[in-house]
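pls design
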């Protein structure tokens, strides 16, 4: 594309060595697998915290000879409580982001129902975000990067849903594998150039429809990453497309 020491601990503390693994550092891409793992570790922390609290209560009644050991256990209990609170917050943030994805997907489907019926647009909910695929003929004339009036109207509908949502918006241009010839080659020497010009023009229309420019990225894939065979006219038509990828921002 163009663009952890080892310490001596009481017997009942040794089982805690794995608790430190409970927290997951989340990146921009939150998959279902990472969410499931975090939920599993979160539940393990709840169980470990309950056991430690019970053991601490028992140790407090033994006497002075156990005071130091009991205090150490209390520190571990406090630490697990903090970790439990942190994982709870992370789980809430992930769920909130998933709910945002569902809501935005539903709004886009409703707004673009007419175009969806004609198969000129497809909307796909991904594990991390949403992808809107627009065919060439709804946006451009053949060999042109200028967006048609019908395309501007469609992008206006998309832009209306993206004004305030916390998503990074990656607009990618794709072509078929046929070389650009004749006079057109003076403007777009390669498919890279045509795909880049188309993606950039889509970004401009979205910006004109109040989508913040800092959220927008234009990318060119040229003839790469085909979704159909270039051996047929129908396949090449599918490959000439614009994809708008809506990617949630990172959960910190």
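designed seq:
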């Amino acid at each position: 594309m163009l663009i952890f020491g080892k310490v001596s601990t009481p017997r009942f503390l040794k089982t805690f060595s794995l608790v430190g693994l409970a927290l997951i550092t989340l990146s921009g891409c939150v998959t279902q697998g990472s969410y499931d793992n975090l939920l599993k570790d979160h539940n393990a922390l709840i169980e470990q915290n309950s056991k430690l609290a019970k053991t601490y209560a028992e140790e407090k009644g033994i006497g002075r000879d156990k005071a130091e050991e009991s205090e150490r256990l209390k520190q571990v209990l406090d630490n697990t409580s903090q970790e439990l609170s942190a994982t709870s917050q992370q789980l809430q943030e992930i769920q909130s982001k998933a709910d945002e994805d569902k809501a935005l997907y539903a709004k886009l489907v409703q707004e673009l129902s007419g175009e969806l019926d004609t198969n000129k647009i497809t909307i796909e909910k991904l594990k991390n975000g949403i992808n809107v695929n627009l065919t060439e003929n709804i946006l451009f004339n053949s060999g042109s990067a200028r967006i048609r009036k019908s395309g501007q109207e469609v992008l206006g509908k998309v832009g209306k849903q993206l004004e305030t949502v916390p998503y990074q918006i990656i607009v990618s241009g794709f072509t078929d594998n046929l070389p650009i010839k004749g006079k057109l080659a003076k403007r777009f020497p390669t498919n890279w150039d045509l795909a880049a010009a188309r993606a950039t023009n889509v970004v401009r229309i979205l910006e004109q429809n109040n989508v913040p420019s800092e959220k927008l990225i234009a990318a060119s894939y040229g003839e790469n990453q085909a979704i159909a065979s270039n051996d047929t006219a129908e396949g090449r038509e599918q490959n000439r497309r614009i994809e708008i990828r809506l990617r949630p921002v990172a959960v910190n």
